[in-house]
Amino acid sequence: MHLEQNHQKSLKTQSQMHSPYKSSTGLFVRTSSIVDTREWAASHSVCIDDIAPPIEDYTKAYPRSAAKIAIQTIILHCITAVGYQVDPLPIINWLKDQGIWEYVSPNEKVFLCANNRSDKECSDARWRQEAQWALLWTIGKIESLDLPTQYCDSARLVDEIMPRLGDPIEAFVSSAELRSPSELMAEDDRIYNLHYDHHSKPRSLDHRRHRPLPR
Hints:
Blueprint: H1 2-12, H2 14-17, E1 21-22, E2 29-30, H3 34-43, H4 66-83, H5 88-97, H6 106-113, H7 119-138, H8 154-161, H9 170-174, H10 181-199
Antiparallel strand pairs: 1-2
Helix pairs in contact: 1-8, 4-7
């Protein structure tokens, strides 16, 4: 449909609109320095594998269901689309038709319903796609997060993963499967430790939240 085509075109120009830096975690890394980033992470005992090895002794269940996370990724998808100047009215109607408007936060509703949006608000909305990508990993829609050295694959996200704007979302939501607590904690620890080591002075590993992850 026309709305989806506009969204696809907008998202596929993402690499031209972003700065040469990426940060979904507060960690700024030049995309041209992937090797250096991996070496830096390894020197801080942070896992550099595509998939962080599960923390086998961690079993605490994640408080949110796979279905609710799937719904959140759809909402973020819509926020991103509006950030790329896609008409918000059909998007709002779609969210209401699919019965998930109630899950849109008050701030998100303000953004979607606004008559005018600042450049900064639109820029912030476009960055929400990186959060969407991370959440898609938690429910098994993508294979790995890897180190934060490049943008998420927006073309694959739009063309292959997310339901098309206007289509039913039931199959997408019902097929979401939450990863195990040990997998979630391993990736959570990796991101936390990357952020901590990047912003902190050298300190003992005892100050890190969980424990050094295996290389």
